[in-house]
Structure formats: C-alpha cells, structure tokens
Amino acid sequence: MTERVVLAYSGGLDTSVAIGWIAEETGAEVIAVAVDVGQDGEDLEVIRDRALACGAVDAYVADAREEFADEYCLPALKADALYLDRYPLVSALSRPVIVKHLVAAAKQHGATIVAHGCTGKGNDQVRFEVGIANLAPDLTCIAPVRDYAMTRDKAIEFAERTGLPISQNKKSPYSIDQNVWGRAVETGFLEDIWNGPIEDVYSYTQDPAIPRPQDEVVITFEAGAPIAIDGEKVTMLQAIQKLNARAGAQGVGRLDLVEDRLVGIKSREIYEAPGAIALITAHQELVNVTVERELSRFGRGVSQRWSELVYDGLWYSPLKRALDGLLDDLNATVSGDIRMTLHGGRAVVTGRRGDESLYDFGLATYDTGDTFDQSQAKGFIDIWGLSSTMAARRDQRLGRSSG
Ligand code: ARG
Fold it and tell me: Model-level pTM?
C-alpha cells in the first residue's frame, strides 16, 4: 500500500508546494488538513480546493474554533498566561489543537507520517513534533522546509515548473500567524529591532493614538470563565470575538517584543491580541479580589511556569496537566463582574463586584465603620519580625553590618 502523509495545510505558498514536494520526495500520498482556529482569512472551501488542485489525494478543513476557545484559550485565561509577562501565547496555543486534528486525520486515513511547514529555527516545529510524539508516539514527522531544504525561491520555482494554481502576487513582506486569540507578525523590516512597527503591520487593532470616545464594558466571570458581556450571555469563543472587536477598535493589545525562543535565538515579533489582553486584564483583577492571598501569590509563579511550558511546546506534558489541576482549583472562586474602560490602547479596570469577593469594606476602611482591631497589629509585627531582628542583633554584637 502506498504510504500516506498528513500535512498541516495553511493554504499558503509553502504548504501548497509541500504537497507535491513531499509526494516527489517520499512517493507517498498527501492528505492536506487545514484547521480553523478562527484565523479569519480566506474562505476555507477555497483552501480545500487549492490543496486538491496541488495534488493532495484528500483535503479537508476541521472547524476547531469552539474547541480552541474552550480547551486551549480558556485554560490560558485561567492561567493568566503571558510569556515573558507580556505575550499571550497566540501561536503556542494553536499548535496543540492543530496537532490533535493531525493525529486524528492520520489515524483515520492510515497515515504513518505527519508533515508541517515550519522552518528549523522556530518554536512551532518543536510544538508540532513534541505534541505529535506525545499523542501518537508511532507517527514520524517531516518538515520539507527544514528537512528537504525547500527554500522560498525553490518553492516558487517548483510552483512555476509544475503549474500549481498559486498566485504569487500576494507577496506579503511578513510572516503572519493568526487565530482568534491573536496575531503574530515577523520578518521584513521588523528584523531590524530598532525599526518601529508601521500601521501596515496591524489588522486586529486600530491605531490607539487616534482620538475617539472610550468604550466601557462589564465582563461577568464564573469559575474563571467569561460567561456574559454587558449582561448578555456568551460562549468563550463569543467572548473573545466580541472583545477582539471592541478592544481592537480602541487599539488595545498591541505588543512589540524581543523574545527568547526555545532554540536559543532572540527574535522580534509584533503581536496584537485585543480580546486576549482585555480578558486577561479583567481576569487578573478578579483573581486579586476573590482568591486568598497565599494561593494568589503561588498562582503567579504557576502562571509563569505554565506559560513557559506551553511556549516551549510541552502542552501535553505531565507538569502542564498537573498545573491545570491547580489552576482549576484556584479559579473555583473567580466569579463576579469586572468593569473596564477600553481606550487609547489600554484596558483599565474601574470596578469589581460579586459574591465571591474577599474585599471587606469594614476591614479596609479608614473612615467610620472600621472593624479591624488595630491594637493587635503591634504584637503581630514584633513576632513576625522576630527572627530577622534576632539575626540583626547578633550581627550588631559581632560588629557586622546588617543593613
Ligand atoms: N514567536 C511566536 C511564538 O513562538 C509566534 C510564532 C509564529 N509567528 C509568525 N509570525 N509566523 O509563539
């Protein structure tokens, strides 16, 4: 039987050429699988037809939008996941769901090989291949760009030689990856990290510098998940979409970052993730209000570790899974309303309320109605500071400075 390869197909030049290239190189039949994670680009039927026209024996588009929102973006929100404290893991989150669909397609079509269009320099090759090895250790992976030296020039030449129906006029200077959680743009003039991004780079967000009236939004959360916006019930996918539109219109969620790739390279990427940043900003504040201090503090470390694991391609790893368990616990009380102003590129929390709130007016107030017994504070401080005070006394006695 002819061997079969499942290819992660985007519809772009590289993966279109990869169909024929893989067939030539391996003699295998290629099945193209495109996964809809809300990238909102070309019509997906057009993408499917192009794969068939490029020589795929079968091609289909898997609608993974709800699944991506519920099972990948929501855990990221529960983790307040920001790699390097800033990047909401846009591409890193989509790879594991794409992997899931590639593995399912391989099983269904009896394929033994999975192929992807990544280069050998980035994080995404790692995310694909570790994900596939974790879900289906028997499958092998190939990456034509990396393994068969399929450069861009050679790809264009191949497309011309074999008469592939790919228009080369949409020559974007950028490498773009996008989904409902956000958009990542790199290469071109952005590779000089002194060059500032131009408006041309952005598509999910408007220029925050343009004067416009502000927008005020109330997001209702239940156990860490957004369930309503301005009182109207939403699914996770709808929450992201609605906030992409509203926060995007105010220029919220733009990010220009030099980041540490897993392979050791520092690279520069421009991101825009208006919905993700608005949701994470609101969620972080609700955590502050509803989660007990020690769990909340511990959660910050968990959040950082979770983000690094997911960035580094370890979505399907035991530690990531264990941290998800902790984060579900942490989020059990994260319910209530957050009011935010979206304006001038920022999402600013202006109000919080809800039954799970740990904020106690009586304890916090400096006005009448104070219920906090201040006389207890003195003894607390003496004992709290006792061990370091003892050490300081010792140092003083021995003539050492403790300051
Ligand atoms: N640097 C980001 C990450 O590793 C995005 C990768 C894809 N970016 C792109 N412009 N094609 O998650």
Answer: 0.97
